[in-house]
């Protein structure tokens, strides 16, 4: 039976990305050695890294004056690394859930943190819209897509200070105005690659201003200066990222990803809204195109388990909601096909018709 992978992350990747990466793992560039066995400094690996950086710049239209680096430590390390490098005195944070809270906690180790707004009052089911941004803060940190709650900020916030974005779960799903950001970071394991690498885009002129001694490994300049080769980079995840970036380019770039994401999400949200058994958990205008969260309507609460079993039988994988939200979450990253979204909507419809 065909399986549809709606996991929140690690999650679906294009089949050809997995196959091409697997080939190189078995025999890298016909060398007879595995990609796992070669030196990251070998003449064949440098072009992999260079092409990946070039494609990121091309796909996101990264302006001059920004560097792209690959680091380990996940997006979680960026919660620390960002304030360590960019927080001079005061930083502003928009609190849209678990990941934002974790990033604020780390920032407090480095200076004053202002929570400009929060949607905690409604279990983070909306994006706060009206708030003051202190003009004397060094940056405004936003989580552009809240993987757990299914909310998304799809347009850059109009901010008098530079933005810093955790784009772990929506990078490369739509165009972004990089010039508004001092830093963008994303753990790779949703829209880009297998887990193990984080992509970071930093504005060069903003580095080296923080009034503290930064440990060498935490200093972005270390990695910018050494082209992500200060220490041994995770070569297999970087290779996997390169394959995904090639696939995105071939598929029409982030504009095409955006179009597909809108179409795909509409199919599922329309069915949630039509179907008497279900309701979406997020305020309509803030619904994420990547993580579609919904629950059973109160009258049908006892059908949660039966629907889960039914959907599993139909090949739907990874649709259990995060424990903080409950219900269901259908994550639809770039590699999810329109057919996958249609199959999911049909499954909901069929379940309703059985009653
Ligand atoms: N930020 C967001 C929006 C996430 O969804 C996640 C993980 O799911 C993280 C940060 C943490 O990423 P990592 O596990 O790579 O540290």
TrEMBL record:
Q: Where is the Aminotransferase class V domain?
A: 4-340
Query: Any idea of its EC number?
Result: 2.6.1.52
Where do the annotations place pyridoxal 5'-phosphate binding?
75-76, 99, 147, 166, 189, 231-232
| Entry note: cofactor | Binds 1 pyridoxal phosphate per subunit.
Q: Which InterPro entries match?
A: Aminotrans_V_dom, Aminotrans_V_PyrdxlP_BS, Pser_aminoTfrase, PyrdxlP-dep_Trfase, PyrdxlP-dep_Trfase_major, PyrdxlP-dep_Trfase_small
GO MF assignments: O-phospho-L-serine:2-oxoglutarate aminotransferase activity; pyridoxal phosphate binding
Q: Which cofactor does it need?
A: pyridoxal 5'-phosphate
Residue positions where N6-(pyridoxal phosphate)lysine is found in the record? 190
According to its UniProt entry, what is the function of this protein? Catalyzes the reversible conversion of 3-phosphohydroxypyruvate to phosphoserine and of 3-hydroxy-2-oxo-4-phosphonooxybutanoate to phosphohydroxythreonine.
Instruction: Give the record's subunit note.
Output: Homodimer.
Q: Which family is this protein grouped under? A: Belongs to the class-V pyridoxal-phosphate-dependent aminotransferase family. SerC subfamily.
- Return the PANTHER family for the record: PHOSPHOSERINE AMINOTRANSFERASE (PTHR43247)
The identity of this protein, by name, is Phosphoserine aminotransferase
| UniProt organism field | Hoylesella shahii DSM 15611 = JCM 12083
Supply the source organism's classification.
Bacteria, Pseudomonadati, Bacteroidota, Bacteroidia, Bacteroidales
Q: What gene is it encoded by? A: serC
